[in-house]
Amino acid sequence: MTKFVIRILVLLVSLIYPDLNAQIKKIGVPFITNYSPKIYKSASENWDVLQDSKGMMFFANHFGIMQFDGVRWSIVTQPQNKSMVRSMVIDKNDKIYVGAQGDFGCASQLPNGQYQYTSLVKLLPVSARNFGDVFHTIIYKNEVIFFSNEGIFIYRNGQIKVLKSEANFEDLFEVNNEIYVIDNAKGLLHLKNDNLIPVVEAEKFAGMKIRKIFGVKNGLLLLTQKDGLFIYKDNQITPFITEADDVLKRNQISVAIRFSDGYIGIGTRQSGLIVIDGSGHLIQHISRQTGLQHNYVTNLKTDKEGNLWVTLKEGISLIQISSPLSRILDSSNSETRIYCSQIYQNKLYVGTDNGLFWLDWEDYKNGKRENVHFEHVAGMSENVWNIGVFGNSLLAFEKNGIFEVKGNSAKATAKIDGAWKGVLIPNQPDLLLAGGYKGLYLLKKSNGSWVYQHKIKGFDESSRIIETDKDGSIWIAHGYKGIFKLKFNKTLDAVSEVRFYNQKNGFPSSLFLNTFKVDDQILFGTTKGVYKQNPASKKMIPDPLFKKYLGQENHIRLLKPDDQNNIWFVSGENTGKISKHANDRFDVEELSFRKLRYLYVPGFENIQTTKTGDVFFGTQDGLIHYSSVQKKKYQTKYKAVISEVKSFFPKDSLLFSSRYEALPSKTGAAEDKLSAVIPYSNNALHFSFASLFFDEPDATKYEYWLEGFEPKWSEYSLQTEKEYTNLPENEYVFHVRAKNIYDVVSEEAVFRFEILPPWYRTLWAYILYVILFGILIYKIIKYQKNLAERDRKQLILSQEKELLHNRAALNEQKLVLEQENMAIMRENLEATINLKNAKVASNTVNLIHLNEILLSIKELIGQIDKKNDPNVNFSLLNKINKLIDHELQGDKHWNEFEEIFNQLHDNFIQRLKTSYPELTPRDMRLCAYLRMNFNTKEIAPLLGISVRGVEDTRYRIRKKLQLPSEANITEFILNF
């Protein structure tokens, strides 16, 4: 009776203090996303988790505060001493208070996106600074409490109050807005007004190693590390017995959380997560064997979407406890590719590539999973395509034929070349038509078992999809050919009529056609919606009901009615159900099944429903269970975020980042809240963005728009980055928003920035351009003036030139006349010179002739023999000789010759006298004769000497002229 009362109390408390978001299914294992250290690239150990007001996730990692925005992981800041972070809490202003190893403080986000850590240890007295791990950080009223074994530090109004214990503290808990502390010596203490007050019989709690306390009505629920759960009420400690006690005691409780539905999630050190209800019944046990990546749970927190974040000794796991979908798993989890499923005689059967498997469904759904495993059905080891209950028998359709299943074994009923599916012949429940790889086969029930009869003749097509109508016709869909409608003969051993339908008969395509039976009506799934046959024209037409609710754009892969008046469908990649209500009103539910996208085995989509409301989906990722009782809010608000903005030049310069240290940026009202002002040289930008929605983040799509550059939003895509290059100067706003797997669009994130113009397009540049333009205009005007002045001067110069030209022409005429006169004078002079030359030559010739005569006379006189001719008058002869000698000297003639010669030869004799004064008159005469180019024989008579005498004279002259021996005296005289 006591145990019952305690459980009722716990249940009532669970209902009083709900966490309004989180729920958890009992059947199956929730979807789990594991983030290993290889993914987030940081330390393996994580100790705490929190979410800020935007939805950003933060984790207490060994290397610091780790952030996750749904796409990217990063360490955003570290304690001042670089130690591991053990605990965190966030206030209403998104300031994160951090407890670390030997340090505690706060971290705030700066305008450029990065986080800055400020240590508060400096506020402690020196004597209180020696402490270890800060295991808990709690915001309590208007103060922050940092808890370590060595002391409790209460931060209030910029000051810290320190509480110490002689034996150290064990743990701290916040329960019903009250703070409780476990002292190793004093036991359970109540923290009130900065004082630690023992509860009644507080010493009983010392040494219990309490890991979590929850409030119950008028009492407390205590979770101990090794001894299970206890209720403290009316000053009594009583064990609280649960179905998980053995597991909890063996595997040590580390942390716990209470969910909105009253369930309690308990993290252990060695066996993962255990969930119990308010009465102590085991709801879930999620461990490494069922998908958790590590068994040591360090903390548990739920986010705004109702997901459970589990920090582990190695890694982080996200458990989607609010989802109505869960996976049917056991510890072996050996088979994941499921083609079909069926509940029969409280056993759940699944068909796989490796045969048929089963487990005890009643034990599994009631939480008794420790010894519940999928077991192989003996007798089948190939692909099982379909299973179904026909009469009281379970038949399996396998690669090797048709098998009847009884318990954990199967016996071949028909060994044929592959069987796909079976349907009962209308109005003949003892006849079963089986579709095979190569046609149709008939089975008959005899003595409670199905017996193979024969193959139906006249039809050998593969018959994987088969249905019967109320008229007894057989409809078979061949995915690559079309639809066959068959009629059998009366003995059911042959096909009597075959009709074939494809695109020519109204279908939008002959490919990928299916046939289904809904409300006794044959319908067809096509690539463009649901079709049916027009009874009058026999043409295939769109079904109006399904056209209204499913449209005509998607490939209808499956339609299946259930026992709750629902029609399940797989349309395109979406799964859903159409529920019929009164007054022919229909509702379509599709969002709950978005997780099933891309999970089905293509072409083998299967949904199994039960009368109790269980729904099973066979997928490539195992068997998935759906519970309509479990409700999840899908239209929840969330935010898109800009993770970082960087410029390519300089290389990867960060302008904004919540992940790394970024460059300073200008912000504030003066810049209209610009996030950054960027020089033109950095006008190539790279944006990274994400969404703070963590349910299937890989399926989230994004659209973006750079206002000021692009005219409209982009199309949705999976990319989480965008680059822009060569942006012109302008003010821009980068917008981004996300659309999650449930088609909910996020609040948009914006980044305002301005690209400054290049220096040559700045205000100062334009001022300079105006100045330069003014200077240019001034220069042009000045140039025009100078040009006019130059033209004027050129005109004057031209006139002067013309005048000078006229004068020059006159002068030229004058010069011509003068030249003509000079020519006449030259002619006259030349005539005179020629005359004088002739005269000189004549005189010279005459003189030569005369001298020759005189020399001849003198020679004759010399020949007179004075001694032999006494009659000769010697005195007269002497006078004649003297006269001849005088004439030979020719002084009179020479003077006349010299005068004329100097006129003709530019004062040659005078110049020669001046240059060589030592020359005698005879020498001068000889030089004159050489100038006239006379030879030696011609010169001798002129000088009245012999040829020998001329040679001697020439020699003396050479000496006086100082000519070298090789020089020619005649050439010298001629060139002088």
TrEMBL record:
It holds the Pfam family Y_Y_Y. Residues 800-827 form a coiled coil. The chain crosses the membrane at residues 763-781. InterPro entries: Ig-like_fold, Quinoprotein_ADH-like_sf, Sig_transdc_resp-reg_C-effctor, Tscrpt_reg_LuxR_C, WD40/YVTN_repeat-like_dom_sf, WH-like_DNA-bd_sf, Y_Y_Y. One of its GO terms (molecular function) is DNA binding. Residues 916-973 form the HTH luxR-type domain. This is ABC transporter substrate-binding protein. It comes from the Bacteria. GO terms for biological process: regulation of DNA-templated transcription.
